[in-house]
Amino acid sequence: MKKIVRDLLGALALLGLLAACQQPPTAPVFEQSWVRAMPPSAHMTAAYGVLRNGTNAPLTLVAFSSPAFGDVSLHRTVQVDGMARMREVESLTLQPGEAAELEPGGLHLMLMMPAGPLPAEGSVPLVMTAADGRSFRFEVPVEQR
Length: 145
What we know:
Blueprint: H1 2-21, E1 29-36, E2 44-52, E3 59-66, E4 69-80, E5 83-88, E6 92-94, E7 99-102, E8 107-114, E9 123-130, E10 135-143
Parallel strand pairs: 1-10
Antiparallel strand pairs: 1-2, 2-7, 2-8, 3-4, 3-6, 3-9, 4-5, 4-8, 9-10
């Protein structure tokens, strides 16, 4: 019985040590992300998905960009006098583990002034920059939805 208790305590100590050695997450994740495919004559599209703060500290995103577009900005669709209007959002702060859903009719990334036609199948690189200067790059698939 003493050997079982000793072995169990040793295993628990090892598990505690392994947990303490784990690196904390250091980046956000952009899950279920997609860019709406656009016809060749269009000058803008949008990106959607679930943006989750995968870090252990608050994260404030202040800038968005893509080499595939001349301008990328965060917008929110709001109702004004019964009409849907888009308003630019200057920054987005997410607490540790918190997520923001970017969806049609809500919060989304506007992708304007394309550098060229979007691939029918493929992805668009998006860069999100935090207030502390860190940048996070995502490859977001282009989809017909």
